[in-house]
């Protein structure tokens, strides 16, 4: 956890707070140490940006969750558009 916090320029308490707000849930090593994925660190970094801008941590966590959901929905929509365009019959001119 200390290394992850250092990478983010945050404190271990900040990472614990993100866990308490259910933004990220780190895996645990056999020794009980928290282990964060790259994705979780990216999410935590975005939350830190918002908090640094004065957004309360609860709101920052919600914003990050909504941004992530929007990004996923946009990826799905693009994939469906591509699949739909590929399945359209070609017109002969």
TrEMBL record:
GO aspect biological process, one term: regulation of DNA-templated transcription
UniProt GO molecular function: DNA binding
SUPFAM superfamilies, alphabetized: Putative DNA-binding domain
Record-linked Gene3D superfamilies: 1.10.1660.10
Residue span, HTH merR-type domain: 1-66
Family annotation (PROSITE patterns): HTH_MERR_2
A Pfam family assignment: MerR_1
Entry protein name: HTH merR-type domain-containing protein
């Amino acid at each position: 956890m200390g290394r992850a916090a250092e990478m983010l320029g945050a404190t271990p308490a900040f990472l614990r707070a993100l866990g308490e707000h259910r933004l990220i849930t780190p895996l645990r090593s056999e020794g009980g140490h928290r282990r964060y994925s790259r994705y979780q660190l990216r999410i935590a970094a975005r939350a830190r940006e918002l908090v640094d801008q004065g957004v309360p941590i609860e709101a920052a966590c919600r914003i990050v969750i909504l941004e992530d959901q929007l990004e996923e929905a946009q990826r799905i929509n693009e994939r469906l558009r591509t699949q739909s365009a590929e399945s359209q019959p070609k017109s002969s001119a």
